[in-house]
Amino acid sequence: MQSTSNINPAATVVPDSASNLSKKEQVAEMFNNIAGRYDFLNHFLSMGIDKGWRKKAIAEVGQISPQRILDVATGTGDMAIAAAKTLNPNKITGIDIADQMLEVGRKKIATNDLSSIITLQTGDSEALPFITGEYDAVMCAYGVRNFEHLEAGLKEMCRVLRPGGKVVILEFSHPTRFPIKQGYKLYFRYILPTLGKMVSKHSKAYTYLPESVNAFPEGKKFCEILGSCGFKEAKARPLTFGITTLYTASK
């Protein structure tokens, strides 16, 4: 399949265009700064719907009964914890570039008595420190749009997946139906950044969010990119009127 790098503008969107830091460094700094309020804001700003989205994603992962799962851009470990409770795997590894997010996640894992199953570690999605074919399933919730180089990260996710394994990705998208489309635009562009800034005390994080979502090559375009990165049978399933999309593919 022809390379789709020309339809990947996501890598050019950074939290602060005036900064001398790379996108990767800015994203790590941004999430470290909001780590303590991240879980509250996730659930508050989505009105709790994000829990249902993760549940659907984990159900997709569970279709192949994986024993070894990698959670890329794990953040505070919500997906990893939910998967451990639901799927009963032998091992879940969560990886993220934001150390403070991982510290919050480790406390949650210990509280849930899941430290023997879930391990969190600092790492770069574009250079995963795992052997080829190490995992049965790879999942990522709301992290791929933050990759500095989207295709490089997806190729790494494909590399560490065993043949016949499954990738499951959640990412924000845009509703198309009236009046959801109009209401979503209003909320995402004006209300969410204002509320996010008030609670997180971080001026960039919740303005970067809608900007990065607008730039992300969603739906069919993202499925094409998954195909160009080594995945097969890529599918996009819109959830909640298309506010988010659940992507699945196999290796």
Give the structure's gist in a few sentences.
The chain is an alpha/beta fold. The chain contains eight helices and seven strands.
Main sheet makeup: 7 strands, mixed
Q: SSE order, as H and E? A: HHEHEHEEHEHHHEE
CATH architecture: 3-Layer(aba) Sandwich
Q: What is the count of β-strands?
A: 7
Tell me the layout of helices and strands.
Elements: H1 23-45, H2 49-62, E1 68-72, H3 78-87, E2 91-96, H4 99-111, E3 118-122, E4 135-141, H5 150-159, E5 161-172, H6 180-200, H7 205-215, H8 220-228, E6 232-239, E7 244-250
Parallel strand pairs: 1-2, 1-4, 2-3, 4-5
Antiparallel strand pairs: 5-7, 6-7
Helix pairs in contact: 1-4, 1-6, 2-3, 6-7
Q: Could you explain the architecture of this structure?
A:
By secondary structure, this protein is of the alpha/beta class. The protein has a single domain, classed as Rossmann fold. It is built from 8 helices and 7 strands, in the order H-H-E-H-E-H-E-E-H-E-H-H-H-E-E. The protein has helices spanning 23-45, 49-62, 78-87, 99-111, 150-159, 180-200, 205-215, 220-228; strands at 68-72, 91-96, 118-122, 135-141, 161-172, 232-239, 244-250. A 7-stranded mixed beta sheet has the order 3-2-1-4-5-7-6, with helices on both faces. The protein is globular and about 40 Å long. Residues 1-11 have low confidence and may be disordered.
